[in-house]
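Newbie here. two chains, one complex. Structure please?
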Amino acid sequence: MKRAFDTEILSVGTELLLGHVTNTDARDISEMLSRIGINVKYHSVVGDNPARLRQCVEIAKSRADIIVTTGGLGPTCDDLTKQVLAECFGLRLVRDEDVVRSLYEYIDTGRGLTENTYQQAMLPEGCTVFPNSCGTAPGCAFEKDGKVVVMLPGPPKECRAMFERSALPYLRRLSGEVLVSHALNIFGIGESRVDDLFAKEMNAMINPSMAPYAKECDCLLQITAKAASEEEAEAMIAPVRAHVLEVLGDLVYGEDLECLEQAAMQALKERGMSFAACESCTGGDIARRFTELPGASAFFLGGAVTYVNAVKTELAGVPEALLEEKTAVSREVAQAMAEGIRARLGADLAVSVTGLAGPDGDGVHEVGTVFIALAAPERTWVRETHMGVNRTRSFIRRMAGNHAFDMMRRYLRGMDVE
Amino acid sequence: MKRAFDTEILSVGTELLLGHVTNTDARDISEMLSRIGINVKYHSVVGDNPARLRQCVEIAKSRADIIVTTGGLGPTCDDLTKQVLAECFGLRLVRDEDVVRSLYEYIDTGRGLTENTYQQAMLPEGCTVFPNSCGTAPGCAFEKDGKVVVMLPGPPKECRAMFERSALPYLRRLSGEVLVSHALNIFGIGESRVDDLFAKEMNAMINPSMAPYAKECDCLLQITAKAASEEEAEAMIAPVRAHVLEVLGDLVYGEDLECLEQAAMQALKERGMSFAACESCTGGDIARRFTELPGASAFFLGGAVTYVNAVKTELAGVPEALLEEKTAVSREVAQAMAEGIRARLGADLAVSVTGLAGPDGDGVHEVGTVFIALAAPERTWVRETHMGVNRTRSFIRRMAGNHAFDMMRRYLRGMDVE
């Protein structure tokens, strides 16, 4: 009989409920568990309150096979996770002399240990103790009533280190499966169109499975497979990936990337090329995004933020007459900006953006009208976009930047640019 | 009888359980609710699964007065929050024609709307609709069976904006008392120092109350008063504000602001002055941040992102000999960049940044060494900062920008700049 491994992560700490800290422990543990094929079905957070914690443990017992707690193991009076969990599973807390010794080594002040420091050495009888490599409070794990309980400290560094070193090997013994997941990054069509295209297949798929996710100005398709080994899981993913690539073609800009600028950087690296930028309505966001990537200086020379017309002329050499004739929000000015900055800085490529990010218009164009240009040695391309008057300023700016990086990646990989 | 407002935040999305994203929505909502005196007692997370979501809703109904959901409102087939919530409260979903109209405006492609886009206009009968200012899926709220239900979209920007604009006023109505809260924005000392300075008073205060909050590169003191009317609450806050201002002086850069660039813009407006920027390691982030503010074009002329040395010379006129003698990361080059761009663009003021944001060093300076300059008609000031080798790239860039905006605001308001 196959054993089930539905897991609940139960985080204990009033600071989480006040919003003073983010629950990164639950995210970290979920990510690491899903890699070894253990399904996290629930996260819950409760404050430092014994009655409410007890109720949450009872709920977790009723719906999960593995309960992972984080937080509430420290020496202060509001740290009550061990007491409550032991009680809920009918176990006594006993003093672990090895832990007492290591507490002495760690925080020996020459004056002995305080009463509440000793509390950290009180652990459920018969448990496996997890040493804390970055702090004092040890964690532990036990099996009882057909459930597995793992208790980890709250501070993210301690929690993560203990999970990786002690809890993961402990849990891996229980599972025979691995879970592998890849994201195909998509720009050019939205999440709901992707969903339309693959809805039938997705509904019929169980393992491997596939699901679309919207990001701010692009989206992704996540393909996940569960198998006995990593190789086997990868082999299950391969035909699904191939099918998606066949349907979507070059709308897929990468795999497991965070953003389009990473795809642009990869393509610049492959071709050994540099670029510059001349930005009006994006106001420096293209430069900022690319230079967030470590190693950007090998590909990005610099750029101009030409917010007013005179600066378009001064820094990028856009002719005053052209600005007067065509206005700043035009195909021609976008082209002149890209070509001007490319020549000025001696870059292989240059991108430019000019348009209306709102909230105010210019009386001529609608908010959301943006021209994006790419100047290359052989020619310049310009995309004209109308993103809609209801889009926010930050959406319009981010989307314009995505178009610029998309044009670069397409040019560098020999695809249609416009 | 005082009504209870125990709250559960229920987040829906398999991506949270896979650890692909962090539950920042729960953190943001918790923080904002605690400021208006509503207690969050539980967070829970469940995947895109109707049966498990239904169980979670039943648990939330049994232990909370207010249920706030996040996620699962989008157009794809795994978005099921509205259906399940409506079902659990015995409500039908009905089509909201106002929402259909706004969907048309938002994403009209000339081909009409797809079937799954329409789904977003299906809302629980009798609910209050919350428009989505950053996306398509609307949120909503209703009261039923003595419970209040609020449904918000999952993407953090959409969730936060809708919570602030629509959900917060909706929830505030429920409470008979008025809660007024003001944040004093602080730059130049950290949250823990602020905590030290006011710890005694804060511990003794109940209403009004005061609490420090750390932001990414600055901090704030939140003063909150609860009273029968807004005027009464404001009158309770006034002496506390006066005391804080007396202790902190010009370290307080504003009140209820989001960021330092807003303080800089206010000061530029008061003095009717313009500025330009020349950025090396911030890579356009100063220009990007300032131009995120609507109306930026009245004060910001433009700037240069001078990522490589040749561009510092080409766009900002920094002498090659100076770059060779002092290196790019120096007080002298920072000064030349600010003065160069100021003269070139004819701005009243100019700021510049040059330094090491990491992760790689230059073999001479430590990562975190950054020079920030402000050039004004009468002279130029330079700040030298050492942020520490353990800071992240994005922290160093943001902090450098904060220094630039702080120098501008101080100059414009006649305070010490260095």
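Moderator note: The longest strand of chain B covers residues 178-186. Chain B has three domains: 7-174, 178-255, 260-412. Thread marked as resolved.
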